[in-house]
Amino acid sequence: xxxxxxxxxxxxxxxxxxxxxxxxxxxxxxxxxxxxxxxxxxxxxxxxxxxxxxxxxxxxxxxxxxxxxxxxxxxxxxxxxxxxxxxxxxxxxxxxxxxxxxxxxxxxxxxxxxxxxxxxxxxxxxxxxx
Length: 130
What we know:
This protein is an alpha+beta fold. The protein has helices at residues 5-18, 22-27, 50-63, 122-129, and strands at residues 29-37, 45-48, 69-77, 81-92, 95-108, 111-119. The protein has a single domain (5-129), classed as Nuclear Transport Factor 2, Chain: A (Roll). It is built from 4 helices and 6 strands. It has a 6-stranded mixed beta sheet.
């Protein structure tokens, strides 16, 4: 059985992100995307628009010395939403971070329009990202 088209889109986005191909990520994301990053750290907040969102991704790479990665375990989707079950990890000096998470997105007209990331250990994420 073939994957839902939105699961395929989300999977392509994750593959591009993992390869550092932010041009492909940009092409799969709406110009007016709203990216909600949880927690109480310097990267927490809502990033509105594609430029702010790409800037957020670049900060993730920069703050982790390029070690930030997302390992996809599964992706589920329907006509309006997709959910990725992932493990997020990063390291910096002697500090490291790893947490399982659910990443939930809205998709409209073949583009990701809104995103929420729910990690199992927000306190550890906040401590790492400071």
